[in-house]
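User: Structure with zinc ion, tokens only please.
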Amino acid sequence: MDYLILIDKFNPLPEGYEQKLCLSEIQGRLLEAQACCQCKMMLERAKADGVDIKIISAYRTIEYQQRLWKQSVNQKMLEGYSKAQAETEVAKTLAKAGHSEHNAGLAVDFGTEYATDVEDDFYKSKQAKWLCKNAKNYGYILRYPRLKEHITGISYEPWHYRYVGTEAALFIKQSGLCLEEFLHFYSEKYI
Ligand SMILES: [Zn+2]
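Assistant:
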């Protein structure tokens, strides 16, 4: 499994990825097996520190991603956007089917204890602060940071974490780079 795989607007899941994907369960959701094991350890540690973190979304099938995309675009069109405008707007926070890290089983959206959906002000919570500080030790990075929107193509998402493996996560966190920059400058050392 390549945990440094780049999945974005331009790079869909590679052919045959889903067939090779091995999933495990956490909080009733699914994640890639190793990412799941690390996530479990991370959330147990957080709980021990008095911080209850809820998983809002983890692995999504490509079909589900497709439905989510259509629903979101339709919703925007009901609000008065044209189809093209609606798609542009939705694309700021939602990937098309096969272009989401959630389809790869390597991404988790976290929330506060009783949240039922992602929270815009999640960054203020003790859960977000704990993750910001500690996720790297479990191989997770904040995937869409502030001020990197022009590179990632995605708005700041304080809730979306991506599993990249511990070595890369520590480096990415310390360097302040986003995954795209890290892969551009350092991939040869790591891949
Ligand atoms: Zn997400």
